[in-house]
Design brief:
By secondary structure, the protein is an alpha/beta fold. It folds into two domains: 4-105, 2-Layer Sandwich (Enolase-like, domain 1), CATH 3.30.390.10; 109-368, Enolase-like C-terminal domain (TIM Barrel), CATH 3.20.20. The chain is 34% helix and 20% strand. The chain is built from 13 helices and 20 strands. It has helices at 41-56, 64-73, 81-101, 106-109, 129-141, 184-202, 218-227, 248-252, 272-276, 293-305, 320-332, 346-351, 377-380, and strands at residues 4-12, 18-25, 30-34, 118-126, 146-151, 173-174, 179-182, 207-211, 235-237, 259-261, 282-283, 309-310, 339-340, 352-354, 357-359, 362-364, 373-375, 388-389, 392-395, 400-401. Strands 4, 5, 8, 9, 10, 11, 12, 13, 15 and 16 form a ten-stranded mixed sheet that branches. α2 packs antiparallel against α3 (81-101) and α5 packs across α6 (184-202). The longest helix is centred in the N-terminal third of the chain and has 21 residues, at 81-101. The radius of gyration is 21 Å and the shape is globular.
Amino acid sequence: MAKIKSAKVIVCSPGRNFVTLKIMTDEGVYGLGDATLNGREKAVSSYLEEHVIPCLIGRDPSQIEDIWQYLYKGAYWRRGPVTMSAIAAVDMALWDIKGKMLNTPVYNLLGGKSRDKIMVYAHANGKDLSDTVEEVGRHLEMGYKAVRAQSGIPGIDKTYGVPKDKGRYEPAEKGLPKEDQWSTEKYLNYLPTLFKTLRDEFGDEPHLLHDCHHRLTPIEAGRLGKEVEPYHLFWLEDCTPAELQESFKLIRQHTTTPLAVGEVFNSIWDMQELISSQLIDYIRTSIVRGGGISHMKKIANFAEIYHVRTGFHGATDLSPVTMASALHFDLSINNFGIQEHMPHHEITEEVFSRSYTFEDGFMYPGDAPGLGVDINEDEAAKYPYERAYLPVNRKEDGTMFNW
């Protein structure tokens, strides 16, 4: 019987910061897990090194469920993004080890394939209306069937989802948090024009998505959802902060636009009412933020009862280890909806090798044993951690607001 011999945390910054857990067995097999928490990377790294790894040494790596419960219930202080990201990293690494030991990809351990390929959506970000139209068209030409459209808003200097310069968007900026300015009124007045223009340009076939990024009240979200109904969005994402789950009842009263929420959730309790009361259509929690594959399996099974599908977070603040985990998971469950896909930076690909691929709007996890991802530690060492934070947001009058 194999035993966990050692484990270590690798923190590196190839284009952005990542936290990777590597668990080694006494039989020479190792597994990787992602513990990246954007802007709080060192907190998770410390939690793993000081509290989790010492508890893993000598354990049987095949006992995935028992180890998960030990780390969750045994800490007494449950949940929260730091704890759940650390547990997720262990869970991913153990599934990776089990797949390698049985010489099979992880999706086979989760019940096998429920589909042949994974539909993903891209990000099309423009500084203004014409720029956004151009970006949506470019991604459709790349083969994407689904595109999330974000645009600069007239009268607002800087907007979530829109890069400062032409090129890839990375919200975390080096140094201490920057402050952005926001106007809900200008945003609400502009958004219907954006999606009318996109439908006029590209027709009804492409799936169009949009992220409000927690910036609306429930009644404002109801208004926006109703106004964009003629343009049949695939979903409206994170339209209001969801700590008050019952607030989505108000949104549901005013719109039939599908609702997606949950990338900041970290346990099934964060979404219990949203799912059981059928207040949302897609659950967005990521594998790393949701406690790993084991806990996300419970969430997906619970959601399936209530006709809620998955639409996992998949931005570049998740390493290729989480993306691989998500793709294996997506392939296996019945109530998969869509998967977010932001291609990683070129230098990230130098540090992480992976077997998953993209082709014509779909992704494939590959058939390598385990998760099919590895890390080059020598390359990782070339990119040390750099302090970086997501921005903070203030309304035009200076009031602190949701970013």
